Amino acid sequence: MGHFGRTLFGLTTLTVLALWLTDAAPARQGADPAIRVDKIKYPDLSKLVRSHKGKVVVVDFWADFCVPCKREFPHLVELHNKYKNDGFVAVSVALDDPADAEARARIVKFLEKQNAGGLTNLQLDEPSELWQRKLGVAGPPCVYVFNREGRIAGKWDDNVDYAEIAKTVTELMKK
User: Fold this and answer.
1) What is the mean pLDDT of each run of 10 residues along the chain (175 residues)?
2) Model-level pTM greater than 0.90?
3) Torsion sign over Cα 74, 167, 82, 50
4) What top-level class would CATH report for the domain 32-174?
5) How far is the CA of 73 from the CAs of 69, 115, 147, 149, 151, in angstroms?
6) How do 142-146 and 56-62 pair as beta strands?
7) Domains of the chain: which residue ranges?
């Protein structure tokens, strides 16, 4: 095997080892999955919600600049942890400017701090005018709850109250 072959083999072996350690470490330690924030277009977000028919879905629209959003966010994680094995899906959708790399880094850091790796974490890749019109809000916070048939069971904006949201989710989980 020539120098190039040995180097390629060594790099491949190191790459496989690094991937194995990365994938295996959280499993061994029982840690939350790594934070992943995918950009999504509005029509794809609608499809995502519809794809969870048969489950109760909470979609929390928030932003890094929104203090009330960040104050209430731990309650979304609590709901996820309580019902994740019972047909519940928690989706967090950041509304920060998708072109702002610094905002994206702050989003990931916040989600890590919240232990939100088990949630579906997204960033809406749309201009604010579009999501404001589609969601019927001037800005975050905004939380939608969908029943098992995929229909809106509740909407909270401005004064998001996770005690009310939790009550709605608890009732929907019984059905």
Assistant:
1) 41 33 33 81 94 97 95 96 96 95 95 95 94 91 96 92 96 94
2) no
3) negative
4) alpha beta
5) 6, 11, 20, 25, 23
6) antiparallel
7) 32-174
